Structures are given as structure tokens and as C-alpha cells.
Amino acid sequence: MTPWLPLQRKRRLSLRTVVDALRYVCRSGCQWRCLPAAFPPWPAVCYYFRRWQQDGTLQRLNRALNEADRQAQGKAATPVVLCLDSQSIKLAPRIAEHRGTDGGKCVNGRKRQLLVDRQGRV
Q: Where does the record place the Insertion element IS402-like domain (predicted)?
């Protein structure tokens, strides 16, 4: 079994605290600089986030945790049924990048899609 997180590190930090800090930022929506003192310094957390995002570590970790959770519930590791959902996001009138119109909702902005299984796992 290969490790989910890379073992070579640039800094001497506990990867558990880095993952906890990333979860805190996702959950609270705070800025990097506003991380509480209980977590590692924000530049280190941001460094690991960007590195793991670029090399696909976060996607592999998400896939492995989803499969383990499904197996713990007695289901197959990969889902059989998926659901595609979309959401329209309003943008400021002056933002021109990646902009379109959702004709059904009369919204100027972006549209994002998400693919989930029956339990809502991405």
C-alpha cells in the first residue's frame, strides 16, 4: 500500500496538523493569514496545499477516503449510480472572464457542476 501523503517534506511539520489546518480553512472559509495559532504558520500550510493540489495528492486522498467510507458501510468501493447537479453563481456586472448567462434562471455569471454518489460524496 502506498502512503496517501508524500513522505518527503521540505519543512519539519506534522502532516496531521497541516491537514487539520486545510480542513479548518475549508470549513470556516477564512483567509490563509487568519489561521489560529494552534496550526502551523500559514505560509507552510499554503505551500503544502498548492503542492498537493498540483501533484494530485488531494484527489488521491479524497478517492481513497471515499472508497474506505463506502466499504465501511458495506457497499462496493466504487459507486454504481451518480448524480450530476449544477449551480448558477452571480457575478459582479464588470467581471468579464468566464461569464455567461443561465437562460432558465436569468442569471449573469458562472455555472458549476458537481458529480456525487447517492450519499453525496464527490
A: 9-61
| pLDDT for residue 15 | 84
Task: Find the helix packing angle between 15-28 and 42-55, rounded to 10°.
Answer: 90
DSSP E strands, the chain: 82-90, 100-102, 107-117
The residue segments making up the domain with residue 49 are 15-72
Number of domains making up the chain: 2
pLDDT band at 41 (very low <50, low <70, confident <90, very high): very high
- Written as nine digits, the cell of 12 is 519539519
Closest by CA to 55, choosing from 111, 90, 5, is: 5
Rounded (5°) CA angle 44-48-52: 175
Same domain, 65 and 88: no
Query: For residues 5 and 8, what is the distance between their CA atoms, to the nearest angstrom?
Result: 9
pTM: 0.66
